[in-house]
Amino acid sequence: MKTVHRYSVRPSLPPRLAGLRELAYNLRWTWDHDTVELFMRLDPELWMQSRHNPARVLAEISQERLDRAASDEGFLANLERVHGSLRSYLDEPGWFRRRHPESADMCVAYFSMEYGLAECLPVYSGGLGVLAGDHLKSASDLGLPLVAVGLMYQKGYFAQYLNSDGWQLEASQLNDFSMLPATPVTHGDGAPVRVQVDLAGNNVVVGVWRVQVGRIPLFLLDTNLAENEQADQDVTDELYGGGPETRIRQEIVLGIGGVRALHALGYRPTVCHMNEGHSAFLSLERIRTLMGEHGLDYLEARQAVGAGTIFTTHTPVPAGFDLFSEELMQKYFSCYVEDLKLEWSTFIDKGRARPGDSDEPFNVAVLAVRHAPRRNAVSRLHRRVTARMLHVAWPGLPESEVPVDSVTNGVHTRGWIAPEMAILLDRYAGPHWREDVADPSVWARVSAIPDEELWRTHVRQRERLVAFARSRFRAQLERRHAPSADLKAAGEVLRADALTIGFARRFATYKRATLILREVDRLKALLLNEQRPVQIIFAGKAHPRDDGGKAFIREIVRFAAQEGVQHRLVFLEDYDLEKARMLVRGCDVWLNTPRRPLEASGTSGMKVLANGGLNLSVLDGWWVEGYREEAGWAIGRGEEYEDFDYQDRVEAQALYSILEQEVVPAFYERGADGLPRKWIAMMKNSMRHLTPAFSTARMVRDYAEKFYLPSAHHYSRVSADGFARARDIAAWKKRVREKWEGVRVVSVDQDGGPEVQVGSELPVRVKVALGELGPEDVQVIVYHGLLRSDGQVAGGAAMPLPHAYDSDGHAVYEGAVPCPTSGVYGFAVGVFPYQEDVLIPNELNLMTWE
I need a labelling partner for 364 at 20 to 30 A (CA). Which of 138, 454, 489, 801 fits? Predict the structure, then answer.
């Protein structure tokens, strides 16, 4: 076969249009409506064909159009204004530098397996990636000193299409990197940046691509290089593709290769944030680097690395974490362990919840927990679920004291809000909402929006959604070669004035997409009521190996076809960010029916808030915190069931009742002016109270002040003077572990008898034997609270007792337990290690209870 040499012919960008390139290659356009309108104005048809990709527009647009734009004074004025807005945005200091100028030299590195930033950059699959993308966007808005790392996938996640029976099929789509808003990273001399990682004895070369997200650089790693063997090129082939061996190879590239890439680019992060456990191996690489550069041993280096590492888990069940067999770990880490100067048995136990159990596989989440003393769940309820999972590692602690925090997820409001709604907010809330989305006082001004204007704006969004759904539904039928009658009918599915419910998310079985189909007659009565019709738009992908999720999709498609409701219920294929935006902007109600407590957070329902949509959801994930009467609806009261079939029956009944008795009447009961006043009041309540609380502006500030800054300060302390403090702490931990068996509670005395008066205090005196340790090495804790029926303290509080004096070779600690309210209370006394720069019990799981 003849050799074909590829080359590209691209239009020449006139000098007067030079600003378009910077606009195209900075993903601020994903949340700046003016930039999008500018590129649409340049070539509307190409903008749509390119999947909203300005880099491709500039690569494929005709030279004639560019030349015409370069002589169009109106277009040039628009370009100057939009480009000036970007430059002003990039030059502003941002919230972080204004609020924390002393920490301007901090560097946070954020690692994630996927990023949902734009539909034209398909390196995401679902909620985890969209959350990561929104995290970067708000980090940019706030001006955080943050850099991000991920993988550049040749295929990305699969494209979804359905066969005539409604069964999901998958198709791969190759990404042409030259057409993406990403640029290869090079050195000053133009040579491409390359790092290497060892994959089972092969030195694999890794290239780096840069995606600019506002102020934030995102570096995506790529093994699809000619220097590599085919198997190694395929490491970054497909997101979540293949089996455990593909996954471990990807995670080595992400974690170990990611740290090496940052170093090659001149970044030395003080804090690394692992978004899920996929990047857990980064902690090993940071340890290895410090050992080599500063002569530290493993424990000393781990002390420093742990001070500057954060782990966020999104998983509500242990099975959600990646597990690797010991054989697979040996294949990829037997040589690496030599650099860490660890025995194999010691190393492999770093990824086991039960060290020494040879039957337990290596768990990257356990590795992450062991190297990240600061860790968090993604909602308050998920924090309780995570504490329950981690309790095996801290068996002596009450679950409420298991060392895991929570930062509830949010969404990047400016990226999800409809342009019309943004303009309405500008008019009545003022432009400050764009600058500080998390400010509740701004959203309080939503009350001032006239009901007519708010409703008219939302109706336009619903009309756009219906037109979009009809177009996409018809295209689906055309791909299946449907009869012409079906194609004609597709143009009439859905009504622009009907109550529209959206259900769009990953089709995992625990999300129960088919719960609403449980009683067909009641559902049909809702859908087919001509006076008060309800319509539902479904979208979402099942994992290629999840036949249960695929069966749910087929059940929905078959129901629509067989029950004569296809004009009221549609399933949109190939759910992506574009479809998500249309749905969250146009739906009246966002439906969420997970099996509590398996929804760690969920963010899709947050995206409807600023657009005027209302949530109808099980009290799981974020909705436990968000739900309030007159701002949405709750299915159940937070019950958890062991009998899943019974749970489905009960909650389906509750869902139908809420729709029939509350949702439908509130939507269709209109005043003389034709406005649903009660519904609009709920819209305002939802926008006013929930939007600022569930934004990534609030979320990223929480991360900055609760995690990033304390971690950076901690790392600075332990790394100062050649890591002297890290060495001291490692030695102290070793001594405490060796001497802890000599610690015991000798006696506990409480003054005042078994009854005390409300408002008084209960004096407590504790005598402790410390063996070879000193009072400065320990902290005595009184854990007090209401007593449960089983005699244990429920949801108590921990209070340290100060060292008072020594007596008969024992240390005596004294204090007083506050008694502000009446009831039956109890307390327990425990002794914990104590060191100013050690997080206890996060890092040192030693404790002695009375």
Answer: 138
* Count of domains for the chain: 4
State the pLDDT confidence band at 788, using cuts at 50, 70 and 90: confident
- 512: three-class secondary structure by DSSP: coil
698 Cβ contact partners less than 8 Å away, ≥ 6 residues apart? 410, 437, 438, 692
Answer whether 340's CB lies under 8 Å from 300's CB.
no
Helix axes 298-307, 709-739, angle to 10 degrees: 140
Look up the CATH number of the domain holding residue 618. 3.40.50.2000
The model's pTM? 0.96
Assigned token pair, 328: 């697979």
Q: Are 500 and 535 within 8 A, CB to CB?
A: yes
Q: Is the peptide bond before 181 cis (omega within 30 degrees of 0)?
A: no
Contact present, 787 and 824 (Cβ < 8 Å): yes
Q: Are residues 750 and 684 in the same domain?
A: no
Between β-strands 362-363 and 168-171, what pairing exists: parallel, antiparallel or unpaired? Answer: unpaired
Q: By residue range, what is the domain housing residue 551?
A: 438-691
Mean pLDDT value of segment 434-457: 96
- pLDDT tens digits for 363-420? 999 999 999 999 999 999 999 999 999 988 888 888 889 999 999 999 999 999 999 9
From residue 64, alpha-carbon distances to 10, 67, 78, 198, 333 in Å are: 12, 5, 19, 50, 57
Any domain includes 719: no
> What integer is the mean pLDDT of 230-246?
93
Tell me: do 69 and 197 sit in the same domain: no
Q: What DSSP line would sit under 9-35, residue for residue?
A: ------GGGTHHHHHHTBGGGGG-HHH
> Which residues share a beta bridge with 161?
169
pLDDT tens readout for residues 482-523 = 999 889 989 899 999 999 999 999 999 999 999 999 999 999
Following CA atoms 314, 150, 131, 442 in sequence, which dihedral angle do they give, to the nearest 10 degrees?
Answer: 130
119 and 30 share a domain? no
DSSP 8-class letter at 159: E
Strand pairing report for 744-750 and 761-769: antiparallel
Radius of gyration from C-alpha coordinates of the chain:
29
Residue 792 backbone dihedrals phi, psi, to 5 degrees: -100, 155
3-class SS at 615?
A: strand
> CA 179, 233, 210 angle in degrees (round to 5)?
40
Distances (CA, A) of 515 to 382, 465, 638, 802: 23, 24, 17, 55
Residues 849 and 766: beta-carbon distance below 8 Å = no
What is the spatial distance between Cα 735 and Cα 666, in angstroms, rounded to a whole number? 67
**Would you state the structure tokens that stand for residue 520, as one six-digit string?**
């067909």
The separation between CA 536 and the C-alpha centre of its own chain, rounded to angstroms, equals 26
- Quote the tokens at residue 683: 């819209």
Give per-residue pLDDT as tens, 671-726: 999 999 999 999 999 999 999 999 999 999 999 999 999 999 999 999 999 999 99
DSSP H/E element including 796: strand 793-801
Q: Are 386 and 377 in contact (CB under 8 A)?
A: yes
Closest CA to 39 of 26, 53, 27: 53
Q: For 632-654, write each residue's pLDDT tens digit.
A: 999 999 999 999 999 999 999 99
Does residue 8 form part of some domain?
no
Q: 784: which strand partners?
A: 797, 827
CATH number at residue 785: 2.60.40
CA–CA–CA angle 78, 79, 81 (5° rounding): 65
Q: Give the helix/strand (H/E) hosting 543.
A: none
User: Looking only at Cα atoms, what is the longest distance across the chain?
Assistant: 96
Amino acid 1: pLDDT: 67
Q: Any idea what DSSP says for residue 154?
A: S
DSSP summary character for residue 729? H
Which helix (H) or strand (E) covers residue 807, if one does?
strand 803-807
Distance (Å, whole) CA 110 – CA 146: 7
For 578-592, how does the pLDDT look when each residue is reduced to its tens digit (9 = 90+)? 999 999 999 999 999
Q: What is the DSSP letter of 758?
A: T
